[in-house]
# Entry
Amino acid sequence: MADVKSPKKKFLSGCLGVILIIILIGSYLIYHFFFSMNNLPEGKLIKKENSPDNTYTVELYRADSGATSSYSLRGEVINNKDNESKNIYWG
# Structure
């Protein structure tokens, strides 16, 4: 004989599922817009330095943060072997 859920249990598990989905989507959006360094403005290159063995390059950019705040600095390291870049500083 199959287990039959009562309507209250079905409704409760459906509500919990919807709440969990909303929390997960909200958490992702908060991380993406407030903590992820992938969405930083490009800015204007102000300094470029190579490592002693030319494996990496560090580039500093000055980004305009808008009318109500000062300029910001963004640091990016580039692996010269595979041309991958990664943001390492934002301030």
Summary: The first strand starts at residue 44 and ends at 50. The radius of gyration is 23 Å. The mean pLDDT is 87. Helices lie at 7-34.
